[in-house]
Specification:
Mean pLDDT: 94
Order of helices and strands: HHHHHHHHEEH
CATH architecture: 3-Layer(aba) Sandwich
Helix content: 55-70%
CATH topology: Glutaredoxin
CATH superfamily: Glutaredoxin
Distance between the termini: 19 Å
Strand content: under 5%
Largest sheet: 2 strands, antiparallel
Shape: globular
Length: 181
C-alpha cells in the first residue's frame, strides 16, 4: 500500500531508491518471524483489521485475503533482480507484481504469470524470466538476503535511510521526515 508513496517521497526529496529483492522465507526464519499460517489466530485476525484500516486510509485497492498469498516469492524476486541487472527501474515492476497478488488474484509463484505481469508494463517478460534463471541472478538474491539479515531486516516492506531502519508501510511518514519532507 505504501509502494507508490515511497517512490513519490524519493522523487520529492531527490533520494535514490535501491530496491533489493530478498528471500523472505530466509528472513523470517533468521529473525524468528512466523509465516502467516503459523501465527496465532489473534495476530492473524488483527492483521486483517489493520489491512482494512490501511486499505481504507490509502484508497489502494486491496483484497484482504488474496487467493494466492502467501506463496513462494522467489520467481518474482529473481525476475526483479534480472530487471535490475538489465539496467531497468524495478519500481513499476514491483508495484505491478504486488498489485497482481493483492488486487488481481494472480499467483506470483507461477512463472508464466510473473512473465505476463512483467510484459504488461512494457518489459520483456519472457527474456527477464529466462535471465532470472542464471547463476548471476541467484547469487545476487543470496547476497541481498545475506545483507538484509546483517542489517537486521525482519519484515517487509523495509526501508533504510542513512543506516536508519523503518519497518512497514505505516512508517513512511517517518521516512519522509528523515528525507526532509
Amino acid at each position: 500500500m505504501g509502494h507508490q508513496r515511497i517512490i513519490d517521497a524519493a522523487k520529492r526529496s531527490g533520494a535514490t531508491l535501491n530496491f533489493k529483492p530478498i528471500d523472505t522465507g530466509k528472513i523470517f526464519a533468521a529473525s524468528g518471524g512466523l509465516p502467516l499460517a503459523k501465527r496465532p489466530v489473534q495476530r492473524r485476525n488483527y492483521r486483517l483489521v489493520e489491512l482494512r484500516r490501511w486499505r481504507d486510509e490509502s484508497g489502494v485497492h486491496l483484497n484482504l485475503q488474496p487467493k494466492f498469498h502467501p506463496v513462494p516469492d522467489r520467481c518474482s524476486a529473481l525476475v526483479a533482480i534480472a530487471a535490475t541487472l538489465s539496467g531497468l527501474d524495478i519500481g513499476p515492476l514491483s508495484l505491478a507484481l504486488m498489485r497482481g497478488c493483492w488486487a488481481e488474484e494472480k499467483n506470483l509463484a507461477d512463472e508464466d504469470t510473473v512473465a505476463a505481469i512483467t510484459s504488461s508494463i512494457g518489459l520483456d517478460g519472457a527474456a527477464l524470466l529466462e535471465k532470472s534463471k542464471s547463476d548471476e541472478v541467484a547469487a545476487k538474491l543470496e547476497k541481498y538476503t545475506e545483507d538484509a539479515m546483517e542489517d537486521g531486516v525482519f519484515g517487509m516492506p523495509w526501508y533504510q535511510v542513512d543506516g536508519e531502519p523503518f519497518w512497514g508501510q505505516d512508517r513512511i511518514s517517518f521516512v519522509e521526515k528523515k528525507l526532509g519532507l
